[in-house]
From TrEMBL:
Residues 31-335 form the Transglycosylase SLT domain. This is Lytic murein transglycosylase. Keywords: Signal. Residues 1-22 form the signal peptide. It holds the Pfam family SLT_2. The keyword Ion transport does not apply.
Amino acid sequence: MRRAIQGAATAVLLLMAGSVQAAPPEIERGFRQFLEREIWPEARANGVSRAVFDRALGAVHPNLDLPDLVLPGETAPVEEVNRQAEFSSPAGYFDEKRMAGTVTRGRALLRTHADLLRRIERQTGVPGPIVVAIWGRESGYGTAKIPHNAFEVLGTKAYLARRKAMFREELIAALRIVQDGDREVADMRSSWAGALGQPQFMPTKFRELARDGDGDGRRDIWNSVPDTLLSIAVYLQDAGWVAGRPWGFEARVPATVSCTIEGPDRMRPVADLAGAGITRISGKPFPAAEARQPGTLLMPAGRFGPAFVATPNFYTIKSYNNSDLYALFIGHLADRIAGAEGAFQTPWSAPKGLTRGEVSRLQQRLEAKGMDVGGTDGLAGFKTRRSLGAAEEAAGRPATCWPTRETVRIAG
């Protein structure tokens, strides 16, 4: 989940922080006690000085305008709607008008930074178009506002968020960034989720993977393009990028191939998928070099949208933000930045979807039947999609592998 967070705030990076509601006195007192009694001893044990701790957190107040908070005495509600674009409407996520503008700007920047990107690819194996595509999605190629005080965000979430332990770890890492001299307190700006700089790294990932790409002795992912691009590539290299392989291919899947075979845990040689009747939608054969390499079926909207043969590199991109749509957007944008033309050939045609809460309750019913849906988080990931398809097939229906009102009825 930690890696998923760092790109999750992308859709709201352009929003400037407005006025913050003051926390009630009891929450303010509890917050100060939490910082002093719990965070300070842990920070001190991790080498953070009292001076740095006080500069970073001495004047910070809990920000109750942040999402995903659970106030004292409350229980975490089931999220009924999807706030993150990466987990909502596929058609809206791939809006062609916005995509075209992002492609045009990405192609220009690919030319501008060609020498730098070639050097980065030699060093990491990650192609320039992939790096530029992530840069574009995460921060609008460095133009998006990064409005929040990172210590306010991380402190609030370490105290009040549902994933307190994760944000506590990130808060300690943020303090270490200042202690180590990478950044001054006043310059620690983040998204609402605590993600830092143009690549939107969480603090633990900054400390582990941020790099000095311009040779000035600093890792400045807020202002330096070389630092930003090299850091993105190192992230993907660390996550397992396989040099020389694409991320995937848009495909045509005949009705004789069930959508229930989808998933990275069901990798098989690309030649086996082709032998089953799956073809590239372009009409070209799969590259000969790919035949014996692992691939998998990817159907992010079930039978209601484009299908793909994905390579392990698709799931490496997904490690940056744990969303099929995010990884697909990056791969597609990178292809077009590199020169490919146009949208996917198969349109997104999914009927109006269920709410996140409805999907969560559907997942619970499928789990009660012994199916592995990957967790009852309300998100239609590949395990949920193929479980829905299996339920449809068990009911004698053609598998669509997508949550609809009809699949709710079938799932009982």
